[in-house]
Amino acid sequence: MSASPYSLLLTIHDDLRWLVLLSALVAVIAALSGLLGGRPFRPLGRVTGVFFISIMDLQFLLGLILFFLSPWVAQFWSSPTAAMKVKEARFFGMEHLVIMITALALAHVGAARSKRAGVDGKAYRTALVWFSLSLLLILAGIPWWRPLFQI
Questions:
Q1: Which of 69, 106, 113, 122 registers the highest number of CB atoms within 10 A of its CB?
Q2: Which distant-in-sequence residues (6+ apart) come within 8 Å of 13 by Cβ?
């Protein structure tokens, strides 16, 4: 019995969240370490941020595909008023999308601003603030009631 494209993508998306969280944590720790250690921003500061954003972009693309395939999202858009009373429909139809797009935007802004900051301490501080905010939103936007691993 083969898995549907939806269930396969959902499994990948669910399990990839751990790599997103790990890469976010590494980017935040690298920024904090660089700030406190007074090290040059390149290459560690830039590489960890680029990896974090790359994994987030991949996760976003998978999530966007899932958004259009999800039965919860379909339920939400078929009757938004009624779906607001259904936790899963409301969460996946609106909340998860808004939170994660905001987290993605914060990470991208942080990478761009830290790249332009010039001064190493300022670059690390900028990355630390924006990546930390992104990580907090990611943590808030994860459906923790779902199984921790799908495989």
A1: 106
A2: 59, 62, 63, 66
Does residue 13 register a pLDDT over 80?
yes
Residue 48 burial (C-beta neighbours within 10 Å; 0-12, 13-18, 19+): buried
Taking the model in full, what pTM does it have?
0.89
How far is Cα 95 from Cα 115, in angstroms, rounded to an integer? 30
Q: Read off the pLDDT of each residue in 27-50 and give the average, rounded to a whole number.
A: 86
Composition of the chain by helix, strand, coil, percent to 5: 80, 0, 20
Tell me the C-alpha distance between 39 and 59, whole Å: 31
Tokens of 83: 């779906």
Identity of the amino acid at 72: W
Q: Where are the alpha helices (DSSP H) in 70-119?
A: 71-78, 80-83, 87-90, 96-116
**pLDDT of 59-107, one tens digit each?**
999 999 999 999 988 888 898 888 888 888 899 999 999 999 999 999 9
CA 104 – CA 113 distance, rounded (Å): 14
Which amino acid does the sequence have at 69?
Answer: L
